[in-house]
Amino acid sequence: MAGERHGGMPGLQKRGVPRSRWAVAREGTTMILNGPGISYTEPDIGAEFVPPIPEHPREAIVKLCEHCTNRLLHRDELLGYEYWSFAEAATDEQAEVLCKMKMRRPYTLPEMVKLTSMPEADIEKMLDDMSYTGLLEYNWENPEHAKQWVLPMLVPGSAEFLNMRVSQLEEHPVYAKFFEQASKGPLSKATPMVPPGGAGIGMHVIPVEKAIDAASTSVPIEHIEHWLDKYEGKYAASTCSCRASRRVMGEGCADDPADWCIAVGDMADYVVETDRGHYVTRDEVYDILRQAEDNGFVHQITNIDGENKIFAICNCNVNVCYALRTSQLFNTPNLSRSAYVAKVEKDKCVACGRCVEVCPAGAAKLGQKLCSKKAGGQVPEYPRQELPDATKWDHTKWSPNYRNDNRIETHESGTAPCKTACPAHVAVQGYLKLAAQGRYDEALALIKRENPLPAICGRVCNRRCEDACTRGRVDAAVAIDEVKKFIAQRDLDAATRYVPPVVTPTRAGGFDQKIAIIGAGPAGLSCAFYLAEKGYKPVVFEKNERPGGMLTYGIPSFKLEKDVIEAEVEIIRLMGAEFRYGVEVGRDVTLDELRAQGFKAFYVAIGCQGGRLAGIPGEDAEDVTVAVDFLREVNSGKIDALPGRTIVVGGGNVAIDVARNACRLGSEYVEMFCLESEAQMPASEEERREAVEDGAHISCGWGPKEIHLDEPVVCAVSPSSAARVSLTTWAVLRPSTTRTTCVVSMPTA
User: Do residues 501 and 571 make contact, with C-beta atoms less than 8 angstroms apart?
Assistant: First the structure.
């Protein structure tokens, strides 16, 4: 995608806002902006950190709340999270000093002495103490370059600063609730007034540098380089307050909050001197920005201090960022939009769907034909959502589910049927196009975004994508699975395998938390893959001597070679996962013992490897077994021959596997009995054909009734007639050298 200029950043007309009347809200009457009566679907997160307001609240704190709260709310209540945040952050004396300061007006030390009539040393210490807490900030932006203190607005400002030191936030979790509400409430009535560019409200998104044409028409403030040049030598990496606060409230993400926000200029000095960050070089800033882009984070700059002036460059995760939330919650893109919008270059687009995944505003939808050839190559018109600047806007139109809605909304044109039909929702169109262009590594990388085991799936997939392929309406479906198998074959050769890069949402180089995965089947391997990709070092415990679970011990080798499984596992190992075989958790080592070893989380992926008998008389007879156990013994090498005759009860793919194994192990006669008709058999047509080619016989329309205990006879009943049939064709009076094996394949409970 490339950047294209769109719109400007006009100023917002100031409007007189009447001073609100204040009263202390009693317990049970406190208004919650995202609670009942306002938003009916977004939970009141962080409410457990807010005690009831005391019957006799501290007067100085009540006055401070009034002094610092945005008047756009027109509130006449004192809210609990607001009261307790200021009550825990400030003494009464500090609150009285803060009430004497005008918001966003800088004060030098002599001015503060004059304002408070306090001794210079005392007021200076108090100002520095409040700066350390986060109630104040400071800079040297005056002709004399004298230090001056500022009472900031809540957001961006003091609500953020209170959340930026993790130790302080953990000690006072009510700060998290305060920040979450302060970043939302004041904007609830301002949204209809916000023009393109934000006009000094909140944050402002700027594009990835390489996406902007370097022509003279580009806007300097939209370039990261512009800001790095302006504040040359004054950069500091600091904690992301949004990530930190959401994590405290149990609504966070996988990101480590540390070092994603880059303070510049005097703010860099402030965050370092108040223990909120550390200085970084320009090269380190570049490294942070690159890593942020690899993770799909959004660059934002502060937008409240006037033209050509910022104090930070943030790298925001759309799932937790409060600034991006305001745009989506209120459906007001102007709150954070860039002066550029993305456009699709149709010659380069391969329909991978990645733009849908990373768009922070959900602007691109699944099925949206951005590169339509109709109407002279013009992008088709789609219905536009109503916006606050054109419609009366209140809480009924807010979008509290924006995080989910952004990812699931699909245009009426729909998603490609092959992608929709794929259980893993792999971008089929994308990797087919990349493969056609000979870009095999890119195709394999795209597949592994959603499917960590492509070589395995290429061999055992039931090809739902091909069943849904619209090409089948013309002649035959595209051989999607064969293409996937061809691409994934590269993983079997060390010289061509694709090991996904580890992209960590942390600046610490990876995560040191120990995570145990119990089971090395498909679920456990997938979990290890995605954890390793995020920078964790998971440890996989497997009770068997080989990985793969049912992939190894359930699927016959003639369908899935074991070296394919080993190759896929090796890639996960190279990504950073550790495998411990022959260790059964619960017997060889307990969860408590693993906790004592430092494991912080557990993913239980023990599978569903138990089979189920039919529940008929005689099923406990000798040589009667369930399919899962039979296949496990075959794949473990415990059964290397199967003399005599074999009856298989069932009609699914597992039953087919049993029948084909029996044929290959030397059974004299193999017959499957399934309840369904041939057209209704769960097994695919291809599977049935291969079973017959191997020598198996398939009898449809029969279900088991009983197994004789006195002789190796299976009795079956037809669903169409209640006639009892004795299957004597299997040599009831067999010689001692002959046996009849009955294998039951039933769905697991």
Answer: no
CA angle 171, 172, 176 (to 5 degrees): 125
Q: Torsion angle, CA of 39/45/46/51, rounded to 10 degrees?
A: 50
β-sheet bridge partners, residue 693: none
Q: What angle do CA 716, 718, 721 make, to 5 degrees?
A: 130
- List Cβ neighbours of 429 (8 Å cut-off, separation of 6 or more): 350, 351, 352, 416, 418, 419
- And the tokens for 524? 């456990």
Q: Which residues contact 438 (CB under 8 A, 6 or more apart)?
A: none
> Does 546 have pLDDT greater than 90?
yes
Could you give all domains of the chain from N- to C-terminal order, each with its CATH number? Answer: 190-358 (no CATH), 417-492 (1.10.1060.10), 514-604 (3.50.50.60), 624-744 (3.50.50.60)
Beta bridge mates, 539 = 516, 578
Beta bridge partners of 626: 744
DSSP per-residue string spanning 245-302: HHHHTT---S---TT-EEEETHHHHHHHHTTSEEE--HHHHHHHHHHHHHTT-EEEEE
Please enumerate, as own/partner, the contacts of 400-408 that have beta carbons within 8 Å and a separation of 24 or more: 400/34, 400/39, 400/41, 400/42, 400/329, 401/41, 401/42, 402/325, 402/328, 402/329, 402/362, 403/318, 403/319, 405/362, 406/318, 406/328, 406/359, 406/361, 406/362, 407/356, 407/357, 407/362
| 3-state secondary structure (DSSP) of residue 151 | strand
In this prediction, residue 73 carries a pLDDT of 52
Which amino acid, residue 335? L
Q: Walk across the sheet containing 599-604 and list its strands.
A: 578-581, 539-542, 514-518, 599-604
Can you read off the two tokens belonging to residue 363? 């602007």
Candidates 83, 74, 91; CA nearest to 25 is: 83
Collapse the DSSP code of 357 into the 3-class scheme (helix H, G, I; strand E, B; otherwise coil) and give the result. helix
- DSSP states of 511-554: ---EEEEE--SHHHHHHHHHHHHTT---EEEESSSSS-THHHHT
Which of 196, 208, 156 is CA-nearest to residue 359?
208
Q: How far is CA 77 from CA 53, 54, 64, 155, 738, in A?
A: 11, 14, 14, 20, 89
**Omega before 54 within 30 of 0, i.e. cis:** no
Share of the chain above pLDDT 90, in %: 54
- pTM (2 decimals)? 0.83
Confidence band of 37 (pLDDT split at 50, 70, 90)? very low
Tell me the two tokens of residue 541.
């415990």
Question: What is the rounded distance in angstroms from the CA atom of residue 387 to the CA atom of residue 377?
Answer: 28
Cα–Cα distance, 272 to 263 (Å, whole number): 9
Distance CA(132)–CA(271), nearest Å, equals 9
Three-state DSSP at 4 gives: strand
Please determine, for residue 645, whether its predicted confidence score (pLDDT) is greater than 90. no
Confidence band for 534, pLDDT divided at 50, 70 and 90: very high
CA distances to 108, 114, 129, 132 from 121, in Å: 13, 13, 12, 17
Cα separation, 527 vs 529, whole angstroms: 5
Q: Which amino acid, 229?
A: D
370, burial (CB in 10 Å: exposed 0-12, middle 13-18, buried 19+): middle
Q: Which residues pair with 262 in a beta bridge?
A: 237, 313
CB 681 within 8 A of CB 650: no
Q: What is the mean pLDDT of residues 666-684?
A: 89
**What is the SS3 assignment for 595?**
helix
Chain CA centroid to CA 576, Å: 20
Count of other CB atoms within 10 angstroms of residue 280: 20
Look up residue 20 and give its two tokens.
Answer: 């609100």
